[in-house]
Structure formats: structure tokens, C-alpha cells
Design brief:
Helix content: 25-40%
CATH topology of the largest domain: Jelly Rolls
Distance between the termini: 119 Å
CATH architecture of the largest domain: Sandwich
Number of domains: 2
Shape: rod-shaped
Bound molecules: calcium ion
Radius of gyration: 37 Å
Largest sheet: 8 strands, antiparallel
Structural class: alpha+beta
Number of helices: 1
CATH superfamily of the largest domain: Galactose-binding domain-like
Number of strands: 8
Order of helices and strands: HEEEEEEEE
Strand content: 25-35%
Length: about 240
């Protein structure tokens, strides 16, 4: 009888242990499953982010390939109007996109950028280029302001022309390197005030890569009067 009781007791103990183990086991499995779910969610989020980054990189690579593939550099944003019409000297009439005539008149380029209301030479980095501007009234010059609207910093020399046609250098050197996306007014004080109505801006376009564009050039007299150009010519224009 005692033996039977002991056996029943042991059996009951064993059953209890099994139940306990079963509970622990299922509990652990549940925990594991929840943990895996969380980890899977996190991995899925990471994967989605990586997929987006990869997509961005792919489009960047495509853009880079496109710009590298163009051996003849092209303007990106816009197509110039009236392209292929070379104008030796402009003194009125319609303006070509990026023609030298775009540097006449008041500034009209709203922000820094590759915008056709400014003059751009034919090639972006060919070397020496110049822009010559005529003004209506001769004035005793105190300063020249050049509005550089894209890739500024390539101006290498400024000259003025006397009535007899003699060209005088008023400034020569390097300007501080600027950010390409900045619209800047480069100021060139004229050391010896000279009465003129024509000036020339020289660029060394190798100094700053990409098109170096000029929106307008202002003459400021020593008495404070100022004027914008009415006529123009250039070594080359993107619209030629
Ligand atoms: Ca302009």
C-alpha cells in the first residue's frame, strides 16, 4: 500500500514537472517568436532604407555618366534661343541666350545659376575670354562692379579705353575664390580716375571650372553717378 502511495506520489510529481517544462517551453517559444518578429521588422526597415539609398545612388551615377559622356559640354537647364547666330557687336535688338548682349542693361538674372539672361563664353574652360562693354555717356570712373551670376572668380584683368582707343589696365590679379552657386558683385576700384565710356572684362576661365557667367557690369563715377552698358562684344558667346 505504501509502495502504491509512493508510486502515485512520484507519478504526480513527474506529471507536474512535465506541465512545468511544457509551460516554460511554450513560453520560451512565444518569446522567441515575438523577438524574431521584432528583429524581422527592424531588418525590413533597414532593407527599405538601403533600397532607397541605392536608388538615389543609382540616379546620381546615371547623372554623372551623362555629364561624363558629353565630350562637348552642354548647357543643362535651358536651350539658348537664337543659337548659332554670331553677333560681333550688339547695340540693340533681340538678345540671344547667353550672348554677350545679356551683360548689357541692369541685372536681370534672378539668382545664381546657369541662366541665359547672363553672358557665357562658348566653352566653359578654354582659357582667356573677354567681354567688352560700351556705355552711353563718358564718365570719370571711380569703380567698376561686375555681377557674376555663375561660377564666379575667373576675372583676371579689367581695362578701360581712352577716347583715342588706347587700352589701360585698371586692375589685374585674382579674386577670392567663391562658391559656384553664389551670385556676387565683384568690385574693382579704379586707381586713377579716367574719363571713359568703354571697358573690358578679361577672364581666365580655367581658374574656375564650368561656365563663368556675367549678368551685368556697372560703371560708377567718382561723383557717385552710375550706368549700365548699352553695347557689347566678346571673345565668344555660348550662343555663337
Ligand atoms: Ca543680364
Amino acid at each position: 500500500m505504501i509502495l502504491i502511495l509512493v508510486l502515485v506520489g512520484t507519478f504526480w510529481e513527474i506529471t507536474r514537472s512535465f506541465t512545468y517544462i511544457e509551460k516554460r517551453l511554450f513560453g520560451t517559444l512565444d518569446d522567441l517568436s515575438e523577438h524574431s518578429n521584432n528583429q524581422f521588422q527592424a531588418l525590413a526597415t533597414d532593407a527599405e532604407q538601403l533600397r532607397r539609398e541605392l536608388q538615389d545612388l543609382r540616379s546620381e551615377v546615371t547623372q554623372l555618366k551623362q555629364s561624363a559622356g558629353n565630350t562637348t559640354p552642354r548647357k543643362r537647364a535651358e536651350t539658348p534661343s537664337r543659337i548659332g547666330q554670331r553677333i560681333a557687336h550688339w547695340s540693340g535688338g533681340p538678345k540671344r541666350g547667353w550672348g554677350h548682349e545679356q551683360a548689357t542693361g541692369e541685372p536681370d538674372t534672378p539668382r545664381a545659376g546657369d541662366i541665359q539672361t547672363a553672358w557665357a563664353p562658348k566653352q566653359p574652360d578654354a582659357g582667356e575670354e573677354w567681354l567688352k562693354l560700351d556705355y552711353e555717356t563718358p564718365m570719370t570712373l571711380g569703380q567698376i562692379n561686375v555681377i557674376e551670376s555663375y561660377n564666379p572668380g575667373a576675372i583676371s584683368k579689367m581695362t578701360v579705353f581712352l577716347e583715342d582707343g588706347q587700352e589701360i589696365i585698371v586692375w589685374e590679379g585674382t579674386t577670392t575664390v567663391q562658391r559656384p552657386d553664389e551670385l556676387v558683385i565683384s568690385k574693382f576700384p579704379v586707381p586713377e580716375p579716367t574719363t571713359v565710356k568703354t571697358l573690358k572684362v578679361y577672364l581666365d576661365t580655367r581658374r574656375v571650372s564650368g561656365w563663368n557667367e556675367i549678368d551685368a557690369v556697372q560703371m560708377i563715377a567718382i561723383n557717385g553717378d552710375s550706368q549700365w552698358a548699352i553695347g557689347s562684344s566678346a571673345s565668344s558667346s555660348y550662343s555663337d
